[in-house]
């Protein structure tokens, strides 16, 4: 059995996110009483991981805004509209890392610039390293999971509707969820 320190050293390399085995999702409160979950189905990205010096690692992700999927076509069309993501004018959501900080044995804070609707703000996503494995096709895969809560109004996503009972239809706080499987480049 290898130790995590060994795993981090063997982690060193350049990786490409595997969209077929990665989920970039979100959760928003709806009508103040339930949660709506969704995901983006089209994205690409990668990372350079320095296992000996994690602080030297970098990551970048580009998400196609039009690929938003909440399993409700009418809601998805509204989310793509100017009320929310304005995908015709801003077809991509991007994240570019600016810093990595190790916070524990298998945990890291990934800080970077998140751009939604042309507005860029710094965000820090706590990630857990889930491990390294070789799949049946000989690909070396690394797994990471993380989530962070942002305020959508910070990105100019301000549409809402008041409820008769008080409160609003869509929460300002949105939780972004990342379940990443990345393949080590040959």
TrEMBL record:
<dbReference type="Pfam" id="PF04264">
    <property type="entry name" value="YceI"/>
</dbReference>
<dbReference type="InterPro" id="IPR036761">
    <property type="entry name" value="TTHA0802/YceI-like_sf"/>
</dbReference>
<dbReference type="InterPro" id="IPR007372">
    <property type="entry name" value="Lipid/polyisoprenoid-bd_YceI"/>
</dbReference>
<comment type="similarity">
    <text>Belongs to the UPF0312 family.</text>
</comment>
<protein>
    <submittedName>
        <fullName>Polyisoprenoid-binding protein YceI</fullName>
    </submittedName>
</protein>
<feature type="domain" description="Lipid/polyisoprenoid-binding YceI-like">
    <location>
        <begin position="14"/>
        <end position="183"/>
    </location>
</feature>
């Amino acid at each position: 059995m290898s130790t995590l320190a060994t795993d981090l050293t063997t982690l060193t390399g350049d990786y490409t996110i595997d969209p077929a085995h990665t989920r970039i999702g979100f959760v928003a409160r709806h009508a103040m009483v339930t949660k709506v979950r969704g995901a983006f189905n089209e994205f690409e990205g990668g990372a350079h991981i320095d296992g000996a010096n994690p602080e030297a690692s970098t990551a970048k992700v580009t998400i196609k805004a039009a690929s938003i999927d909440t399993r409700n076509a009418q809601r998805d069309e509204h989310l793509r509209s100017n009320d929310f993501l304005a995908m015709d004018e801003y077809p991509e959501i991007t994240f570019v890392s600016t810093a990595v900080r190790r916070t524990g044995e298998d945990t890291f804070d990934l800080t970077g610039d998140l751009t939604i609707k042309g507005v860029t703000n710094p965000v820090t996503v706590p990630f857990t390293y889930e491990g390294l494995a070789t799949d049946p096709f000989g690909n070396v895969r690394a797994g990471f999971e993380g989530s962070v809560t942002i305020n959508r109004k910070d990105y100019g996503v301000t549409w809402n509707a008041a409820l008769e009972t008080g409160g609003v239809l869509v929460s300002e706080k949105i939780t972004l969820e990342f379940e990443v499987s990345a393949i080590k480049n040959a």
